[in-house]
Specification:
Two copies of one chain form a homodimer. Chain A is mainly alpha-helical and 153 residues long. Chain A is 65% helix and 8% strand.
DNA sequence: CAAATTTATATCGTTCACGATGCAAAAGTA
DNA sequence: TACTTTTGCATCGTGAACGATATAAATTTG
């Protein structure tokens, strides 16, 4: 059939899209008690590794646009998790730093990765099979960054 | 280190989340000329395989909630791609069917899958490696469906 | 040094995504 | 048949994502 390639089953993207939404859903039981969302958790991960970063650095590490990250940070500031102060050398920058609450949340979030691993393995089975995807996903992501960048020229 | 597991690099979900967004971005050059978004393209794929389906069936095939799909279909109706008519046996149902425009778009969209495959391969390299992810993603998705379902009990 | 360009962030508008809730029709039950 | 429950869809509110645009500060250029 001429249209066979159009079939949903043949699509990689649909699976990535679905798997991404479902994994985010799997974080819910752990993030809801902390009052944060998955993207907010990602921002915290970035800041827990290194506090006091400009918006741009955070956006770059999360592969997000600044116009996504800025409102995200504004909501997090409103929730008392971060502060946003003007940069000193470069006053255009906004330096994002953790508040006491943001720092303390690290302790509460400590077990989330292992909880999630357990949840995934419980219903899926093979850890090895999932681990094997990681380097492929990394290559895919790097490739797509290039592809999408080339468009915006 | 105690917090090592928290590191962003160790997360599967972050990669899925990023890869999903970037692949959706890769569809842009092909979907923009048609005036549709990726989720709308997915709805069309479902209807091209079988026309005249209730909202629930479409939502189920896309692993989305009906409260996501309903507004999506409303926008698509507004754009003249689908019609939404009341069900005959079950009047609660809304049967979604393709309009002439929706049917004709199939021809215009015919080459999208191969274009996308080419884009992915161009910058990534190994088709085999990517293909190997598919069954793992399917298992992961099935597992997560179960995990997330168990929460809502 | 003044003018043009780039950079860092913010704002706006549109489209998802989904939890919570509402409502009417269908199905099940007493 | 009357009552309860379930089902199918819609609406509302919130939080992403991101293209387009704006603005001020830094940088480059003439």
């Amino acid at each position: 059939m001429e249209y066979d390639q159009l079939k949903l089953d043949n699509q990689l993207c649909f699976r990535l899209y679905t798997a991404a939404r479902l994994t985010m859903g799997a974080y819910h039981p752990y993030l809801d008690p902390l009052g944060i969302t998955y993207p907010q958790y990602l921002v915290l991960l970035v800041l827990w590794e290194q506090d006091k970063q400009p918006v741009n650095d955070i956006a770059h590490k999360l592969v997000l646009e600044t116009n996504t990250v800025t409102p995200l940070l504004q909501r997090m500031e409103k929730a008392g998790l971060v502060k946003r102060t003007k940069g000193k050398e470069d006053t255009r920058q906004r330096i994002v730093s953790l508040t006491k609450k943001g720092i303390e949340m690290r302790e509460q979030a400590k077990h989330i990765p292992e909880c999630l691993s357990a949840d995934i393995i419980k219903n899926e089975g093979s850890v090895e099979e999932i681990s094997q995807m990681i380097p492929t996903l990394d290559k895919l992501i790097e490739g797509l960054k290039q592809t999408n960048k080339q468009l915006n020229k």
